[in-house]
Write a structure and sequence with these properties.
This protein is an alpha/beta fold. Among the domains are: 62 residues, no CATH class; 172 residues; 230 residues, Rossmann fold. 58% of the residues lie in helices and 9% in strands. The N terminus and C terminus are likely disordered.
Length: 690
C-alpha cells in the first residue's frame, strides 16, 4: 500500500497537467500573443496599400475535349495537347515582347514611373500576376500597383495587345497554311493517290482478275468438291480391297467358296450349285445300292468333278472382276488427288494475290482519305483566314478595385492571432522545460502523484533553509504551529490503518528543502499530546538534529552503529519536553555501509519498545543511496517538497525510487508554501486579538 486515503490524479493525466501549466504561465502566453498581434497590426496599418485589378481570359478548345470514354487514348492525347496550348498562351502573356509593347502603349504619365528604374521591363513584369484555373482553362491576369486606376489601365492594355497579337499570329498562320496546302501538300498527296491507283490497275492486269474475292470463293468451293469426291473414292477403294483380300483364299479352293456371302451376288453360280446338289444326291443314293467301281457311280462322280471345275472357273472370274474394279478405283483416286493438288496451289497463289490486292487497295483508300481531309482543311482555312482567334476570349475586363489587394487587414490579424497563440504556447512550454519548480499543492498531486498532507508556511524572518532546523515555540496561537498540528492529525489518521505503526521516515528529493525542520516540529507537536518521541538523525553525512540538544558532545549514533556503545547511552534529551534525539555531531565517510547494516534494525527495535513514535530524519533520496535503505525499515514515509525550489522531475524521481523499493509513502508535505486564499487570516486575527 503506497498511500492511505490518497486520491490524487494520476501522473498520466496530460490534460490536467497542461491546464495547470497554462494557468501558471498565462501571463507569458498573453504577453507573447499581444506582442505578436500588435506587431502584425502595426505592419498592416503602416504598409502601403496595393491594388490588383484583374481581367479573366478563357483559353478553351474549339472542339469538345470531353467524351463518353475517359480512357480513350485519343481523348487523353487531345487533353494533353490542349494543356500544352494553355501553357503556351500563359507564356505569351508574360513574354518580354508583349510586356515591352504594353509598356510603350501606356500613357506617358504611367510610362515615366518605370523609366526611372535601371531595368523598367523587369520591374514591370514583377508586378504582373497571372492566376491559373486549369480545371476550367481560365487565366486571370492581374497587375499589382499602389494606384488602382493605373493598374486597371495596364491590365486592359495588356489583354488588348495580347488578343491583337494572337489574332495577327492566327491570320499569318492560316495564310501560310493555305499557301503550303495549295502549292505543296495537296499536289504531293494527289500524286500518291494516282500512283496507288496505277499500281492496282497494273496488278489486276498482270493477274487477270478483277474480283479476287469472288475468284477465291470459287476455288474454295472447287477444293471442297474434290475433297468430298476423294473421300468417297477412298471409301470405295478400301471396300473393294477388303473384299478382294477376303475372297483371295477361295481362288483355288474347289467349291468351298460357293458358300461365301461375297459370291451370292454372282448369279452364274446358282444353276451350277443346284446341278451339283442333284448329282451329289443321286451319287449318294447309288453308292448305297451299287459298288464303288460300278460304272454308274463312276459316271456320277465324273459329272460332279465337271461341275466343280465350272464352279472354280466362275469364282476365278469373280476375283478377276474385283481386281479390275480396284484398279479402276485406284486410278480414279490418283486423278482426283492430282486435281486437288492443283486447286490447292491455285488457292495459295490467289490468296497471296488477294493479300497484295488488299494492301494496294488500302494504300489507295488511305491516300484518298488523306487527300479529302487536306482538301477540306484547305477550304476551311481559306474560309476562316480572316477571322479572329476563337479559342481565346475575354470573360471580364478589368475594373477599378475599391478594396486594396494588400495588406489584408482581417487575414493578417487572424493569422497573427494564430501565430501569436502558437508562439505563446511554445514560450510557455519552453519555459516549463527550463523551470519546472513546483508552485502549488495541485502540481504535487498532478505531476508527482502524491497527496499533499500539509502546507507549511515560511518559518523565520528570511524564510531560508539553513544547516540547522528551525524549531517553533509551543505557543498554540501561532499559525505556523497550527499547520504542524494539521500534519499530525493527517499522519495519525493514516498510521492507524497500519498495524503497530510507530516509525515514520521524513525524506526529501534534494537538500535544503526543510525536511529537518519538518521532522523537529512534527516531533514537537506529537509530544504536546503526552507522547514520547524519538528523533533519529539518519543523515549520517550532514547531521543536524543535535542542535536541539543542550550539549552536542558525547557519544552518538555513529558509535552505536559501529557497536562501540549501546543505544541508550547515545540518546540525549532535547529542549522540547517529551522529545529525545539520537544523532551524530559530525558526518562520517562510511555512511552508506553503516545505514545498511544490522545495527540500524537493532536501534529501531529499541526505539519501538521505549517510545510512542520514532521519526527518522534521513538524507536526500536523489543524492545519497542510504536514505531509501533506512526508509525501508520504517513503517511509513512522507516526502518533503519545497515550493518554488523542488523541481517536478526531482520529486517524481524520488517518489518513483521509493515506490520501486516497496516503501509506503503516505503523502507529501509542501514546505515554504504561500498562503492559499487567505488561509492564515483567521489565525493572524486571533493573534492580534490576544
Amino acid at each position: 500500500m503506497d498511500r492511505i486515503n490518497a486520491t490524487p490524479l494520476p501522473e498520466g493525466n496530460s490534460l490536467v497537467q497542461v491546464l495547470i501549466i497554462l494557468r501558471r504561465r498565462w501571463r507569458l502566453l498573453a504577453i507573447v500573443w499581444v506582442a505578436t498581434v500588435a506587431a502584425a497590426s502595426i505592419y498592416t496599418f503602416t504598409s502601403t496599400k496595393l491594388y490588383r485589378p484583374q481581367a479573366s481570359l478563357e483559353i478553351r478548345p474549339e472542339k469538345p475535349v470531353l467524351g463518353s470514354d475517359s480512357t480513350d487514348p485519343a481523348l487523353q492525347a487531345s487533353l494533353m495537347l490542349w494543356d500544352h496550348y494553355f501553357r503556351t498562351q500563359e507564356s505569351i502573356l508574360t513574354s518580354p515582347t508583349l510586356l515591352e509593347g504594353t509598356l510603350h502603349a501606356l500613357p506617358e504619365a504611367i510610362r515615366k514611373e518605370y523609366e526611372g528604374f535601371h531595368d523598367p521591363l523587369k520591374v514591370f513584369s514583377s508586378q504582373l500576376d497571372i492566376e491559373k484555373v486549369r480545371t476550367s482553362f481560365i487565366l486571370k491576369v492581374g497587375f499589382v500597383d499602389k494606384s488602382a486606376e493605373n493598374a486597371t489601365q495596364v491590365v486592359n492594355t495588356l489583354v488588348s495587345l495580347y488578343l491583337e497579337d494572337a489574332n495577327r499570329r492566327l491570320r499569318d498562320l492560316k495564310s501560310g497554311a493555305v499557301e503550303v496546302l495549295s502549292k505543296e501538300a495537296l499536289p504531293s498527296i494527289r500524286a500518291k493517290v494516282d500512283d496507288a491507283d496505277r499500281k492496282i490497275q497494273e496488278f489486276q492486269k498482270a493477274t487477270g482478275f478483277m474480283d479476287f474475292e469472288e475468284h477465291y470463293k470459287l476455288l474454295i468451293e472447287k477444293f471442297r468438291k474434290y475433297d468430298l469426291a476423294l473421300t468417297d473414292i477412298g471409301l470405295k477403294r478400301r471396300k473393294l480391297r477388303a473384299e478382294l483380300e477376303a475372297l483371295g483364299s477361295y481362288g483355288a479352293g474347289g467349291v468351298s467358296g460357293l458358300f461365301n456371302p461375297a459370291f451370292h451376288s454372282t448369279r452364274s453360280l446358282e444353276p451350277l450349285a443346284e446341278q451339283r446338289s442333284k448329282i451329289a444326291a443321286e451319287l449318294a443314293r447309288q453308292e448305297k445300292l451299287l459298288k464303288d467301281k460300278h460304272p454308274l457311280v463312276l459316271e456320277l462322280r465324273a459329272e460332279i468333278q465337271l461341275v466343280d471345275d465350272k464352279i472354280r472357273e466362275a469364282i476365278q472370274g469373280t476375283l478377276k472382276a474385283l481386281e479390275s474394279d480396284l484398279t479402276e478405283v485406284e486410278a480414279e483416286e490418283k486423278g482426283v488427288k492430282e486435281d486437288l493438288g492443283v486447286v490447292a496451289r491455285q488457292l495459295e497463289e490467289v490468296g497471296s494475290q488477294k493479300w497484295k490486292f488488299k494492301q494496294l487497295d488500302g494504300e489507295l483508300t488511305s491516300a484518298k482519305e488523306l487527300y479529302t481531309t487536306y482538301l477540306r482543311k484547305h477550304g476551311e482555312t481559306t474560309a476562316t483566314s480572316g477571322s479572329s482567334l476563337g479559342s481565346v476570349r475575354i470573360i471580364d475586363h478589368a475594373t477599378v478595385p475599391l478594396v486594396p489587394f494588400k495588406p489584408h487587414v482581417l487575414t493578417n490579424l487572424m493569422l497573427a492571432s494564430v501565430v501569436g497563440l502558437l508562439l505563446g504556447l511554445g514560450a510557455v512550454f519552453a519555459t516549463e522545460q527550463l523551470d519546472d519548480r513546483i508552485a502549488s499543492p495541485r502540481e504535487v498531486e498532478v505531476f508527482v502523484g502524491l497527496e499533499v498532507l500539509a502546507l507549511i508556511p515560511r518559518l523565520g524572518a528570511a524564510g531560508k533553509a539553513g544547516s540547522e532546523p528551525v524549531l517553533l515555540g509551543t505557543d498554540s496561537s501561532l499559525p505556523e504551529l497550527e499547520t504542524f498540528r494539521g500534519l499530525r492529525a493527517e499522519l495519525l489518521t493514516r498510521l492507524e490503518k497500519i498495524p503497530n505503526a510507530k516509525v515514520l521516515a521524513v525524506l526529501s528529493a534534494l537538500q535544503s528543502e526543510g525536511k529537518s525542520t519538518v521532522t523537529a516540529n512534527l516531533a514537537a507537536v506529537l509530544a504536546m499530546e503526552g507522547r514520547r518521541v524519538l528523533i533519529v538523525d539518519a543523515d549520517l553525512r550532514r547531521p543536524s538534529m543535535l542542535a536541539l540538544v543542550g550539549k552536542s558532545d558525547g557519544p552518538g549514533l555513529q558509535q552505536v552503529l559501529k557497536g562501540e556503545i549501546p543505544v541508550e547511552r547515545a540518546i540525549q534529551k532535547s529542549h522540547v519536553m517529551g522529545v529525545d534525539v539520537l544523532g551524530s555531531k559530525e558526518g562520517m565517510s562510511s555512511a552508506a555501509e553503516l545505514a545498511g547494516g544490522p545495527k540500524v534494525e537493532e536501534v529501531l527495535q529499541f526505539a519501538r519498545n521505549h517510545y510512542d513514535f520514532v521519526i527518522i530524519d534521513s538524507a536526500p533520496v536523489n543524492q545519497v543511496s542510504e536514505s531509501a535503505l533506512v526508509a525501508r525499515r520504517a513503517d511509513a514515509t512522507i516526502l518533503v517538497i519545497r515550493e518554488l525550489q523542488t523541481g517536478r522531475g526531482a520529486a517524481q524521481l524520488a517518489n518513483k525510487r521509493l515506490k520501486g523499493m516497496g516503501i509506503t509513502v503516505l503523502g507529501a508535505v509542501l514546505n515554504c508554501a504561500r498562503p492559499q486564499g487567505g488561509a492564515y487570516g483567521y489565525y493572524y486575527s486571533y493573534e492580534r486579538a490576544h
